[in-house]
Design goal:
The complex is a heterodimer of chains A (about 270) and B (about 240).
Chain A (H helix, E strand, L loop, with lengths): L1 H28 L3 H7 L3 H34 L5 H13 L2 H12 L6 H6 L8 H25 L3 H9 L4 H29 L3 H6 L10 H11 L1 H24 L3 H9 L7
Helix pairs in contact in A: 2-12, 3-7, 3-9, 3-11, 4-7, 5-7, 7-9, 7-13, 8-9, 9-12, 11-12
Chain B lengths: L1 H18 L1 H5 L4 E5 L6 H4 L4 E5 L1 H9 L6 E4 L3 H8 L7 E6 L1 E6 L19 E4 L4 H12 L9 E5 L2 H9 L5 E5 L10 E5 L8 E7 L6 H12 L1 H9 L6
Parallel strand pairs in B: 1-2, 1-3, 6-7, 6-8
Antiparallel strand pairs in B: 3-10, 4-10, 5-8, 5-9
The chains are: A mainly alpha (about 270), B alpha/beta (about 240).
């Protein structure tokens, strides 16, 4: 009785794995590897790579600087409206990217909510690299904060308590105890958020437009090259697969990641 | 493993086939049409199933095996290409179009002509190279000796709707679109005519896909588009005769 069930499990797993891996593998097999590499040195690809790296790094720095304290605050403090704040942070995670795009227009566009204020200050955001950075922050910071909260919540409260009773102030406790202990989880959160930001497409193409060397990121370049030069699109796609694999490996190799992986991947697991 | 995968694919296909069964029974044509035809084609034939997108994207989809019956493009380039590859029957010109310059109603940078686009404050949005509207825009600018206004481009859109959207939102100051794109947004944008001698030759071609799943319906659709009635509707929408 046991054997047929084992076979059933193996076949199910095999089918879904093959379905998931086949398209990714096909990306690499459609043209020879050396062509794939040579396409990556084309001007379009290099420009897109530079734009993506620049905007992703800036956006990610902002996400880390503001997101870490935010995650710590929500993980360690109980206050009124906390679950509302949590929901707001989770909202962009489930929002379709196109909605993020028009929402950014509605807020920061010339005809948007802050449009006149920004215009008076001589600032124009749409169609600039700032717009790309905004789009990335909008979609990737909720990712980081949500996983960051899980990382902080996974810490043993007794350790924080001990730090306090031994006379460390809240600031010292944060920097010397909580942050180092959560470092593994935060790094994993950081890597996943970075990957999410690097892949941002919908909000960027609407709010920042697509201009080679200015706002055309890697995913936008893939879209633009689809009809011009399919091989470049393939090469860029393969490149992003490699980056994604690297991100996942980094996450897997971070020791404390596994400790809270279950909690963090199920946001509803801790709804207090 | 291979066999199991095929079996799964068949199961999925069968499931989808069941869901799409209604469409198959009344044998309607699936029409892959240029974004510029979004408003008018359903008036010409309301029964057909439409997939509107940039002509280039549609061509890619058809090349990759999408189940299209008819391909109607905003240029002759892609239908001719697919014809050379043996993917479609001989394409026919069914309409013509012309380009205009559009600006938002409040026209914040005071644009009256193509020359005004040289103002360094202007945010110009155009179609990307390789997309019909993008290629025509470059032809028109070359004909006018005004390719330097391309310095003011802030975004290259993948289809004409992207240009229309960004100008009608008021986020871009100007864009080049087909005259037929203006009507749905005429309360938001002002169209500026371009000199007739600078116009690009914008021809729309239609072709039946070789492996069309609904071959008869595909031919009927093309006939309907080329008929007096179809042509009248196209011209009411602003298109020129073939």
């Amino acid at each position: 009785m046991r054997r047929p069930f084992e076979v059933f499990l193996a076949v199910s797993a095999g089918l879904i794995l093959a379905f998931l891996l086949l398209p990714i593998l096909a990306l690499f097999l459609r043209i020879p590897p050396e062509d794939l590499l040579s396409q990556l040195t084309s001007q379009v690809a290099v420009d897109a790579l530079l734009v993506s790296v620049k905007t992703s790094v800036i956006a990610h720095a902002v996400v880390l600087l503001l997101g870490t304290p935010t995650a710590y605050l929500i993980a360690t403090r109980r206050f009124r409206g906390r679950s509302l704040v949590l929901t707001l942070i989770e909202l962009p995670l489930v929002l379709p990217p196109a909605v993020a795009g028009i929402a950014l227009f509605a807020a920061f566009g010339r005809a948007g909510l802050l449009g006149e204020t920004l215009h008076a200050a001589g600032i124009s955001i749409p169609f600039t690299q700032t717009a790309v950075v905004f789009a990335i922050i909008f979609v990737s910071s909720p990712f980081y904060i949500r996983l960051g909260i899980a990382a902080f919540e996974a810490l043993d409260p007794a350790l924080i308590e001990a730090s306090r009773t031994l006379g460390a102030g809240p600031r010292r406790t944060f920097f010397r105890v909580a942050l180092p202990l959560a470092a593994g989880g935060l790094s994993a959160a950081s890597a996943l958020a970075f990957a999410r930001g690097l892949g941002e497409f919908g909000a960027t193409i609407m709010f920042a437009g697509s201009l080679q060397g200015v706002t055309q990121t890697l995913p936008l370049a893939i879209y633009a090259q689809l009809d011009l030069d399919f091989d470049i699109a393939l090469a860029l796609g393969a490149f992003l697969v490699v980056v994604s694999v690297a991100v996942l490996l980094t996450v897997k190799l971070l020791p404390s990641w596994t400790r809270f992986t279950l909690i963090s991947l199920a946001p509803s697991g801790r709804s207090d | 493993m291979r066999r199991a995968l095929l079996a799964l694919a068949l199961v999925v296909l069968a499931g989808c086939g069941g869901a799409a069964g209604g469409g198959d029974k009344n044998d309607n044509a699936t029409v892959f049409a240029a974004a510029a035809l979004t408003e008018v084609f359903p008036q010409v034939d309301s029964a057909a199933t439409y997939n509107f997108a940039g002509s280039d994207d549609l061509a890619t989809q058809i090349t990759e095996g999408a189940p299209a019956d008819v391909f109607a493009a905003a240029s002759t380039k892609y239908p001719d290409q697919l014809y050379d590859q043996g993917m479609v029957d001989k394409p026919e010109v069914f309409a013509t179009n012309r380009l205009v310059l559009i600006v938002p109603k409040d026209n914040p940078t005071g644009i009256q002509s193509v020359d005004d686009l040289r103002n360094p404050d202007v945010k110009l949005v155009i179609g990307a190279e390789g997309v019909p509207i993008g290629d025509y825009t470059r032809t028109v600018l070359e004909n006018m000796g005004a390719t330097d206004v391309l310095d003011q481009v802030v975004s290259e859109e993948d289809d004409v709707k992207g240009v229309v959207g960004k100008v009608s939102l008021g986020e871009a100051d100007a864009g080049f679109v087909y005259v037929t794109d203006v009507k749905p947004v005429e309360d938001k944008v002002t169209a500026i005519e371009l000199p007739a001698e600078a116009q690009a030759k914008v021809q729309y071609e239609i072709a039946v896909v070789k492996d069309a799943p609904h071959h008869d319906a595909a031919h009927q659709f093309v006939e309907q588009v080329l008929s007096e009635d179809g042509q009248a509707k196209l011209q009411a929408a602003g298109f020129g005769p073939p």
